[in-house]
Amino acid sequence: MSSEKAPGERHPWREHLETAAVAVVMALVLKYFTLEAFQIPTGSMQPTLMGLDTSRGYPGYARTALRVSDRILVDKTTPFFRDPKRWEVWVFLFPLDRSNRYIKRVVGLPGEQIRVAYGDLFVRRDEREEWRILRKPAHVQESLWREVWASAGEQRPGTFWDLSGFEESGSALSAEGSARAVTREYIRDAYLDGYPPGIRGPLSEISGPRPGSTAVRDLRVRAAVRPSAQHSQLALHVDWGADLLRAELSGPNGTGYHKIVLNDRELATVPGRLAPGKLHEVQFQRADEAAQITLDGEVILRAEFASTHPVESFNIPFSSPNKAKIESEGGPIAIDSLALDRDIHYTNRIQDEFLSATIPEGEYFMMGDNSSDSLDGRFWKEKRITIDDPVRGKITLRGGLSTSGESVSPNPRRNQSTDPALRSQWIFRDELGEEYRFERNEDHGTEVRHTVPREFFLGRAFFVFWPLPPFSPAARFQLIR
């Protein structure tokens, strides 16, 4: 019998190798051209994206291990088919050190001027135009609300609200006639607002309350209300400075109209009454110079308006920066699930002051959602030096004012080598992430670098898939809005 193999016969080991090779190629194609998983290392996008590790200790507080590092999926095909859109979250090469990848939100587009004022963002094309506010799409706005206080469990409303006419029963309120509840203190841009409860509690124990420094103007009041047949009106107020803004919801015995009112001027009205004895889910919000009433999950009124504070002015009356208020008139009403949220408050000062920037064509302005603790397009600075003796053929070096990554240090910095002969050296990290060592240099100062070129964008972040309990104190499984 012949021992020759029949045509087409193959060795099993060869088939296994070919299968493994195809799998590796497909994995590489997915990684470099389709999808890639990234780990969030810092907190610049919190609480939208978590990058938190207190295992090394927190300044001024006890060392406690609290680690949450989101894993996200990034769509790397999008850059081949279209440009980034405003409000999307993207991964990109950091312009001042392209060896590092950053993740931020797109807020400014090519050819625009962008400005931060009163915690909001404004744009225009050039000096001939008036500044106009940037209003976030509904799905983005919904994801960016940060819970400030909620009557969860047995948390008494009287600890947060000054009550007059309302009676407390655990976390619920009730009134027989006229009643009012007003926030006891100004609502500020507190650092812990919006963190999931599983993270917020432990982090508060580590870092303290960190109450924030600026009164926030964009707020949302939420409640579940059950009016009696005799009830006439429920008013929810979201006031800031001279802007006195309220929602008037007609009770069963009221006018028969729901309204949005600014400084006693009706902005919008619609026929309707709350149903007697029915539990209604009510929300009233001010965000990006727009007011909105949501009733039982449906937006029933929305009105856009111009604030009484022009964007060119920064004179905020300190006598009453903000307050939320609930007023009830007429017969009995019960209120439960009371909560107060705030929007992102974009600050224009961390280390330096930022007011506005002009975005070149083909470039984008990026900001972190953790506005009070995010090194983003507001504060990037480029350092330029020349060195006496060329290193790898270079005399002029450009890079960031400080290095980026897990540790931050001045750029250039002294060599901290244990070898005394090397301590006279300077080390500079350039815009490509390469380090240069030299003895002497001439400092040409710094200049701002606010924007990211289109070609530096790597992909659009769209999903958080990890971590999950019991590996994390909070579930992190959600779309990125």
Short description:
With 481 residues, the chain is mainly β. The chain has four helices and 35 strands. The protein has three domains: 51-138 and 348-378 and 453-479, Ribbon (Umud Fragment, subunit A), CATH 2.10.109.10; 146-342, Exo-inulinase, domain 1 (Jelly Rolls, Sandwich); 381-448, no CATH class.
Note the overall shape.
elongated
* Mean pLDDT over the full residue set: 86
**How many helices does DSSP assign?**
4
Radius of gyration (Å): 28 Å
Q: Percentage of helical residues?
A: under 10%
Tell me the strand percentage band.
35-45%
The largest sheet, given as strand count, sense and whether it forms a barrel, is:
8 strands, antiparallel
Number of strands: 35
CATH topological fold name of the largest domain: Jelly Rolls
The CATH class designation of the largest domain is Mainly Beta
Overall CATH architecture of the largest domain: Sandwich
CATH superfamily of the largest domain: Exo-inulinase, domain 1
Q: What is the SS-derived class?
A: mainly beta
Which ranges are low-confidence, i.e. pLDDT below 50, for 5 or more consecutive residues?
A: 314-319
Domain count, please report it: 3
Alpha-carbon distance between the two ends: 70 Å
